[in-house]
Amino acid sequence: MTEPFNIDEIKQAVFQLGGDKAPSPDGFPLRFYQVRWDTVKEDIMRLFQEMFEGRLSTNPIDYTYICLIPKKEGATRANDYRPISLLNGIQKILSKVLANRLEQVMDNLISPSQSAFLKGRNITDAYVTVAELLSWGNKKAIEGVTVKVDFEKAYDRIDWSFLFRILRWWGFDDKWCGWIEQCVCHAKAAILINGEATNWIKTKRGVRQGDPLSSFLFLLVAECLSRLTNEAIRNNLLKVFKAPNWAIKRIEALRRDFFWTSGLNSAGKGCLLAWKNICKSKREGGLGILDVGAMNCALLTKWWWKFQQAPHLQWNRVIRDLYYIRRRPLMEGRSFRPQSHWWKGVLSLKSIFKWGSTYKLGNGNSIDFWLDRWCGETTLGSAFPKIYQISNRRYLKVSEVLTEDGWNWNGIFGIDSEILIGLEDDIAELKDRLSHFYLGQSPDQIFWRWSSNRLFSVKSTYLALTDGGTRDPGLNEIWGLHIPLKVKVFCWLALKKRLPTTDLLAKRGWVGNTVCVLCGVEDESVDHLFTRCVFTKFIIVMEVTGIQVTDLDNDVIRVWEI
């Protein structure tokens, strides 16, 4: 924690910070330090060396503007505003380097009940814990009281003397506490009112919104309250969802109307292309607009990954206690216990998780013999459906049939040999596939086959769920052109042959003259306007070098390829 600073960790911190934040008192955005890193790195390194040696004066580095963001329309009182600190770039870099060091030990200091601000945890974890317990209590008709406690002006109320008592109690030495003091306790702030700064004010307590250190320091203070609460419980002093289809359809309808008709409720009449095609990725010929239903599924599938990877977290223990029997999850059989709305939604996505996950065999305790991908690209249940269908042990862990002595074939096939008649070839192939697997001592490893780093990501899951398998390189080239976005969309519609030409309008019931207003020869269509119309041919031949009239085909897509 108090080792000498090195240039690599400083550079990492600089490039982790957002470069386009609002300007601070010194007027230098963080983008300046990122773009001119080679120029300023030596000066910044000297500054960190001075801090390490205790010679750094943070005046006026830690001067801060406080910008008041209204929480609601018509804000009139101080409580109606959210204060955001606009820190100098150098101050943010100092704080970010210390925050990166502090982050390495935070997971060991903060109890699992706190789920915000830490890598690998999410504030929705706490929601799941509460929702599941409330659902279980309601179904069991258990009487009780739920108390929601909120911190008012949480960051502003942190007492500095208490903060440093906590840091020393955690075991941080005087050198580290001195660095934190330099970043927190010497600050001066000016409030921006109508763009003008007030006089500088010396702060007496609190940590600043926008400081990379603030969230971690707040967690350390809040951990004390959490532990006091747990102690009170021991002393008997105190005793997130899958969207329904109708909601997704409604959201998609609103987005569709906004896209095509600027929010007018057109009931789909103004749409030039089916919404499902709009939501396809650009490489598939769509616009890459988010598919709400698929994203909802991808986000919820993450819970399955967390369920496997983080069994020690509080929400995970709650789920296991509520829905597990004899170490067997209720999702693998009929459930006699009522399930919450959230858990039902997660269960409905089990097949997606099974589809995207693959395992490396360790001790075999967590791998489903038939239903998980651990022995090739497909599950054994899919590769050997005849054997799987007659098996009376479909929910079977690998560790139950594989020991140090080898495979327990009776455990896999059963002891009734008559039902296996006619499956000799399948059995021989299965035995051959399993012959090179051996049980290990380490836990099984799970990987996400849709992600390049083999770890779960919502993005890779979403892309897998929405990948139609087709590619349209011609349409995809549009988005690399250096032209305005509205022109790109126009070209995209032209290649899709979905521009509102008169022939298309006529098909939708429009009554009027459909003949091209430029040449008056043929009906107006996309192909006519961009290839056959004499005015179009003249413009293209005159303006585009190397194209002759004979090159202009009757199809706009062929012309685009030229």
UniProtKB/TrEMBL annotation:
InterPro entries: DNA/RNA_pol_sf (IPR043502), RT_dom (IPR000477), RVT-Znf (IPR026960). Residues 50-320 form the Reverse transcriptase domain. PANTHER family: REVERSE TRANSCRIPTASE DOMAIN-CONTAINING PROTEIN-RELATED. This is Uncharacterized protein LOC109724810.
